Each structure stands twice: as C-alpha cells, then as structure tokens.
Amino acid sequence: MAERLLLHATHIGYADFDETAQDCQSLFQKLLDLHPLSDGESGPMNSLERRVSDVLDLPEAIKIKTDILAAVAGYMGDWWAQSLPVSIENRALIIQDYGHISTHSDSREGDVTAVYFLTGQNQDINTVGNPRFVIEDERLRLDEQRMPWEGRHGFSVCPKPGRCIIFPSRVPHNQHPFRAGPDRMPHMQIVANFKFDNLPDPEDEV
Ligand SMILES: [Fe+2]
C-alpha cells in the first residue's frame, strides 16, 4: 500500500477582526462620500473607476491598517522580520451591482497580498458569499481534468466585515459577480500588496 503525500500545498492565512465592524462601517461611509458611484444605467464601474488608492492613509483606516499589518506579519512568521523593509501598495475596491473581478494575480504589485473586507455576510470563511471570492489552485486551470480524489480548483472565501485573507501574490484569484440588495449599496474591500526588499529566495540556498 503506497503512502500518500501532498504536493505543493501553499498556505492561505486569514483573521477575523470582529471588533472592527464599526471601523469598517465608518470607512465604508467615508468612501461613499469620497467616490461617486455609477448611476446604474452605464453598468458597473470598471477596474480603474472603482479604485480608491492609498485607502490605508485615511484616518478612518488607522485600526484596520494596524490589523492588516499584524495579520500579514503573523502569516509570514519569522520571514516577516527577515524580509523587511516593505512597501504596501493599497487601494479600496468599490464593487457595485453585477461588478466582478476576472481571474488574475497580483505578482507585479507585491509578494504577499492581503484582502480585507468591509462588507459581506456573517458566515464561515469557506462558504459561498456575496460576492464569492475565490483563491484558485495555481496548478490546475479550471477546465483541466482533476482526479476523483482531488478537491475543487479553488478555495471560496465568504466576505465578512473585518475578515482578512492573505496569500502569495502570484496565486490567481477572482471574484464572482456581486448582487446588490434593494438599497443598491456596493460591496467594498481593501487590497494591500506587500512588496519586500529582502524576501529570502530559497533557490539561493540550494
Ligand atoms: Fe487581486
């Protein structure tokens, strides 16, 4: 009987900062005030129109920024201190009704990506939310055959206020279309791409 070993399983990190619900609401409102929404007749905003750069510099984001830094440091463990200094490209995304994000990676912007949700549902992390955020298995395209014992090609993340998900920036991810409620309020999330100056390269040690 052959033993079973796992091949190339990367790590996804997450943290639920439930105590930041009020901060999420304050920042949500600030972004609504700052950023005009599409009128709905011309469709959802495109990827540039829905972006608010340097969102973590806003006073409403002070605690959220602290939490994201702590979560990413915890995810990286000992490699955090070894890899500093770091620059953090960050933005808010304002997703209106029918807005979605096609599969892509953030590897040009960072080494490690954190996505922090300002809105969503109070559900377990690996459930289908609105919108459904998916971290894909980078070994298999969605249309490739998988063996009966292999799991699905992606890990679904349910957005929830204060939920932070962390993954290597090279890993492809996407977001299914968001459906707004009767109040037409958008979904919002923060993307923070961490680019390290001194990230150790394991190949150097071979
Ligand atoms: Fe992304």
TrEMBL record:
This is 2-oxoglutarate-Fe(II)-dependent oxygenase superfamily protein.
